[in-house]
Design goal:
There is one protein chain. The longest helix is centred in the middle third of the chain and has 31 residues. This protein has 17 helices and no strands. The chain is mainly α. The protein folds into three domains: about 170 residues, Hypothetical protein af1432 (Orthogonal Bundle); about 100 residues, no CATH class; about 60 residues, no CATH class.
Length: about 400
């Protein structure tokens, strides 16, 4: 990547020495003049937020399919919650808020329709063609598929933003590290503290907000949720303070206090690790053998208890399993149809197909790209168009 040479003055909050400073950025794949009103990381944030792929998250499933009005989270609202938590944590740790926010905003941008069920189905379909993984797909979207610019493909994000998105689950291991989408990112090293914050805030947000959605949709029952130690403790505190409050407000206040307690622990434990590690610069952070952003052991245990409860009681709930079954069927059927009848792809996607009709790997990747770009609703419409009785419009 080309390095950033030009400098300009912007008012910024003071950063710690180990924060990722935009002045030290490794630049973009395609060199561009610096903006006079935004830092490179702020510009990255705007590019992600204004992208088609980001907008499509509003109709992609978090836990429940977004097929009707409801107050439960979608993939977009979850992403916005993660981004806001990331900004807050980065600010308190003296890190670059915009870089942390951008990594959070893009962390789920590679998800196909129907959440993890859709990803599993696409991976099965792509078994003989390189597989499907939403992290790899995010890199394809950001570096190739999302192309609003005439001069180059992709969003041309800074090296640090791409690295943070690629490594939001930690260093890149195995064959993926050799993939050209990842190989230039120093795969085996840690990522910036800002990106690590985004990863931990993702875990924090989805567990507590999925719990909230499970209770509000009555897929989870309050008596069962009392098994969770952290919930029960916060519930008892809230009830002691507001003994006559309505049940729904007690639930919201309880979960809010759980989140607040986790954020405080994340800040305290992370500051302690940073101090003990002795890191002084962002490069020291990348060279450190372990992630430095994280919870205390006791809070980590509470998070695992909550995740285990959700896995057993919400993510494997009968209604969710039925959604998953339907999602698998739809994705498999769409994949087979488009692989066997390429002319049924929309024209602008058909134009991406390899000229060699026998290039099944190339064709499968285009079909996979198209299906993964669909929302829950558009995937269901495509399924109806192809498999409903003749004459359906």
């Amino acid at each position: 990547m080309n390095s950033t040479a030009q400098k300009f003055d912007l008012q910024e909050a003071p950063l710690k020495t180990y924060a990722q400073r935009w002045q030290d950025s490794k630049g973009r794949t395609h060199d561009e003049p610096l903006a006079d009103d935004r830092t490179p990381y702020q510009r990255d944030r705007d590019r992600v937020m204004f992208s088609d792929a980001f907008r499509r998250l509003q109709y992609k499933r978090q836990v429940f399919m977004n097929t009707e009005e409801g107050d439960f989270r979608t993939r977009l609202t979850h992403t916005l919650e993660v981004a806001q938590l990331s900004r807050s944590v980065c600010r308190n740790l003296g890190l670059d808020e915009s870089l942390g926010e951008t990594c959070a905003l893009a962390h789920d941008i590679g998800h196909p329709p129907f959440g993890h069920a859709g990803e599993d189905a696409l991976n099965d379909c792509m078994e003989n063609f390189g597989g499907f993984d939403h992290n790899i797909q995010a890199m394809r979207i950001l570096q190739k598929l999302e192309s609003p610019y005439v001069a180059f493909d992709g969003l041309n994000l800074t090296w640090e933003t791409v690295e943070g998105i690629a490594k939001h689950n930690g260093p890149i291991m195995g064959d993926v590290a050799e993939n050209p989408l990842f190989s230039f990112l120093e795969p085996a090293r840690q990522t910036s503290l800002e990106a690590q914050v985004g990863a931990e805030c993702d875990e924090l947000a989805y567990k507590h907000h999925d719990l909230d959605d499970g209770l509000s949709t009555e897929k989870l029952h309050l008596d069962d949720v009392m098994e969770i130690m952290a919930f029960r403790r916060a519930w008892e505190e809230v009830n002691a303070t507001y003994p006559r409050a309505p049940r729904d407000r007690l639930v919201k206040e309880t979960i809010r206090r759980m989140v607040k307690r986790q954020v405080r622990d994340l800040l305290t434990a992370t500051q302690s690790r940073i101090h003990q590690s002795g890191v002084q610069t962002a490069e020291d952070v990348r060279a450190h053998k372990e992630m430095l952003v994280g919870f205390s052991e006791s809070m980590e245990a509470e998070g695992k208890e909550l995740k285990s409860f959700l896995m057993e009681n919400l993510y494997r709930h009968t209604s969710v399993n039925r959604y998953n079954f339907q999602a698998h069927k739809m994705v498999r059927s769409l994949f087979e149809a488009f692989m066997n009848h390429r002319k049924m792809l929309p024209p602008h996607w058909r134009a991406r197909l390899p000229q060699d009709a026998n290039d099944d790997h190339g064709k499968a990747r285009v079909v996979s790209d198209y299906i993964s770009s669909l929302t829950d609703r558009s995937a269901m419409r495509e399924y109806e168009r192809l498999f409903a009785p003749l004459g359906w419009e």
